[in-house]
Known about the structure:
It contains two helices and no strands. By secondary structure, it is mainly alpha-helical. The longest helix is centred in the C-terminal third of the chain and has 21 residues, at 35-55.
Amino acid sequence: MTxxxxxxxxxxxxxxxxxxxxxxxxxxxxxxxxxxxxxVLGIVVLFIIIFALILV
Length: 56
């Protein structure tokens, strides 16, 4: 018994599923720069300033 026969034994007739990770560039390319980077950077800088003011 081959591997294909073994695994197809308990499958239904319509067992084909769409790929969860499509190939050949089907995923959208990430945006360059992005607003999220600046938000995170701003929050980090804000915390540093607050801690500096508390310690002085």
